[in-house]
């Protein structure tokens, strides 16, 4: 086991990793920008190192500064959390070159799954069902039109190096395809420095289902069930739950087994998530995230398995994964991402939290690094808390969530709490009748204003 881990992240995920390290008896190193000097993970870590000014490129994405922090503190390993450098294969390689363990998959697998075209090819080779579309990159607008006619409109134009909805455009017909290609190509070039595109069939009413996996790197992998992440805005998840209201036991068992077998064949190491669109009883692979997900607590609540703990143990080489039959699923869990944003427009709302009270009680968990008096900086993601609730049934979970949302008080900045207080009472949500387009339609129709 490691003696000391550097946490190359900030906010609630840095605190989440820190807590896992504490329970394992591992010393922690927090890194921070000057804007995060008063952050909770900095206050609670055994050591802290300032790695630069507020802009992420000069601090949390500053690889030389992170390496220097490892050298200064003697950290043996780095946990990247999610975002920032968590899916940067070169960062993992550089750490290895300096005899520092990256707590995550191999650089080879990070790079493979980071290229959406190669990821899709790999998934198909491993027997994972994929969305109909181009077999690889499209080399010209003429080729794209030929492929789109073959698979049928509407189609999605997607960046090979995309993520978070960037470099993704919908073309509903032939007339819209040229503009979609040009816009996606420009966005991809600006965001990723890489403008390669591919096409996928656009599914009209899909759900977003993802499978959590753990692999030991030697051919043994297990799945920890699915998460339904269909409530999204601009391809950003806001509400996740497990198990999915749309699947039955046979469906979830089948897709879980398919993914676990494929990850074993790939000799995948650590935690990862294989994401699908699901429509009319069929699953279609869209991507794999080679890191911890924001919504990982949902899985932890219904399995009792600490995913960060497992990540660390696997990276240290001293953990034997349980067998699939040893994984026990119990209850229903829902996570709401509480952002410092206007609940209707989603405009960021940084500033000082003048009053803060988090809910509690049976089955309620809050993952957050904020506190009363804390100043939310304007430089980073607006996520300030994750409210996770578990119950024996989905109805009990929803009732508990409604109560917890009523208790939650955050003053001084705008938050998305009003959105969730509305959603938890909506008939479609209560009945589990929603797809990936539901939330945007709801907001466009003035759902919060009614």
Key structural traits:
single chain; 450 residues; alpha+beta; Rossmann fold; Dna Ligase, domain 1; D-amino Acid Aminotransferase, Chain A, domain 1; 3 domains; eight-stranded antiparallel β-sheet; five-stranded parallel β-sheet; globular
Approximate shape: globular
Query: In the CATH hierarchy, what is the architecture of the largest domain at level 2?
Result: 2-Layer Sandwich
- The fraction of residues assigned to DSSP E strands is 25-35%
Reading off the top of the CATH hierarchy, the class of the largest domain is best stated as Alpha Beta
How many angstroms separate the termini?
55 Å
Question: Helix/strand/pairing class, anyone?
Answer: alpha+beta
Q: In percent, how helical is the residue content?
A: 25-40%
- The gyration radius over C-alpha positions equals 21 Å
Query: What is the CATH third-level topology name of the largest domain?
Result: D-amino Acid Aminotransferase, Chain A, domain 1
The CATH superfamily of the largest domain is ATP-grasp fold, B domain
Instruction: Outline the low-pLDDT stretches.
Output: none
> What is the number of helical segments per DSSP (H or I, 4+ residues)?
15
Which sheet architecture does the biggest sheet show?
8 strands, antiparallel
Main sheet: which strands, in order across?
A: 13-12-9-10-11-14-19-17
Mean pLDDT: 95
User: Can you count the beta strands?
Assistant: 20
* Number of domain units: 3
